[in-house]
Amino acid sequence: MPENVSCTVNTCVYWKEKNICGAEKILIAIDEALSRIDGSMEIAELDATPATRSAQTSCKTFRPRTGSH
User: Which CA distances in Å does 53 have to 42, 67, 69?
Assistant: First the structure.
């Protein structure tokens, strides 16, 4: 597991010393889409969730891409 995903939520089961995230997978989506997820939904079932600024996401390192997608 690469140790280059930072996480400061030390109450999470995946948090490791030095603020490293030890999760095998992580989900980053716009906040509005995350509010629609229930316990039975798999991450792969989500459609793309475009954003234009970091305030729309739970990812504080988000930077919008430029050009066509």
Answer: 25, 15, 16
Is there a contact between 6 and 23 (Cβ–Cβ < 8 Å)? no
Q: What is the structure's pLDDT at 17?
A: 92
Q: What would the pLDDT profile of 9-63 be if each residue is shown by its tens digit?
A: 888 888 899 999 888 888 777 777 767 666 666 666 677 778 888 787 777 667 7
CA–CA gap between residue 35 and residue 69 (Å, rounded): 25
**Region for residue 27 given its phi and psi (left: phi exceeds 0; alpha: psi -120 to 50; beta: otherwise):** beta
13 closest CA partner among 27, 23, 3: 23
Inter-residue contact 62 to 55 (CB < 8 Å): no
Tokens representing 7 are 């996480």
